Amino acid sequence: MSREDLAARWPGYVPPPSLEEYAKKYEDFFVMQRRDGILELRMHTDGGTYVHNWAAHNAWNRVWQDVGNDPDNEVLILTGTGDRWFSGAPRDVWQKPLYEEDPDYIYQQFYDGTKLIENFVTALEIPTIAAINGPGVHTEFALLCDITLATEDADLMDPHFLAGTAPGDGLGLALQALMGTKRAAHHIYTGQSIPARKALEFGLVNEVVPHDSLLARAWELAEMIMERPRYARRMTHSILSRPWKKLVSEDLGFHVSHQGLSMLGGKKQGMAAKTVEEGNQRKAW
């Protein structure tokens, strides 16, 4: 039912925010467009490739809620801008070691780090499609989607251990679930590249697509999904996302807290210059 119909039937009805409202609220982090029930969220920074920052990290958990609360959203496409999924040099993002921050700041960091994953798998009760448009870390959201597409140059590596911390933000969790315990352990310890074709072989992505047809393919799939009845779409997503909901409920807090412990306890450890340079060359960040 429309907002107007519900308002007429339910005195005092409080409508959810409209696309115009939350698109404006999150415009620094996402460009949003919707057509025939299909909502495309494109990550960006100043119109270009997304550069990681803590304001976006804080906003992610709330944008999933607003998108999920809008009944006009029927399918979600998540992608990046340009030829990279994600960027942001760690030394630019982390202005100082976490153990030097005050307790309230640390609490906020780990609250956001937990809720942005929890809300992605619980608040979005609609089919989800990721279109990974190039290399870059933090592909956990893409892996948690129902369908994941990637370009030939995408790289799903997990850099946490190489950077001197534990892989607790959700990416390691997704790798373990999708590629298996042994493969995930090897790639997490070594930080070895997982290029798109290898990711396809490992079951991390569903299709490898040329860059210039990536979004067209994502929209093609979304339009095919929209041809089916609403109940079929919603209930199918509910079935397909249930393993993630169970896994996140059982293990995400464990992962996040262990990453936090490794960051707070590793006072004599830091990201080596060699690691930073290697990451730059691989376009990991």
Describe this structure in words.
The protein is of the alpha/beta class and 285 residues long. 50% of the residues lie in helices and 10% in strands. The chain contains twelve helices and six strands. It has helices at 3-9, 19-25, 54-69, 90-93, 103-122, 140-144, 171-179, 181-190, 196-202, 214-226, 230-265, 273-281; strands at residues 30-35, 38-43, 75-79, 128-132, 147-150, 207-208. The protein has a six-stranded mixed sheet, with helices on both faces. β1 (30-35) and β2 form a beta hairpin. α5 (103-122) runs antiparallel to α11 and α7 (171-179) packs across α8. The longest helix is centred in the C-terminal third of the chain and has 36 residues, at 230-265. The radius of gyration is 19 Å and the shape is globular.
Low-confidence stretches: none
What is the chain-wise order of helices and strands?
HHEEHEHHEHEHHHEHHH
Order of strands, main sheet, comes to 1-2-3-4-5-6
User: With helices defined by DSSP (H or I, 4 residues minimum), what is the helix count?
Assistant: 12
> Sheet bearing the most strands, described?
6 strands, mixed
| Beta-strand residue percentage | 5-15%
> What is the averaged pLDDT score?
92
> How much helix is in the residues?
40-55%
Q: What is the strand tally?
A: 6
Shape: globular
Radius of gyration: 19 Å
Distance between the termini: 43 Å
Structural category:
alpha/beta
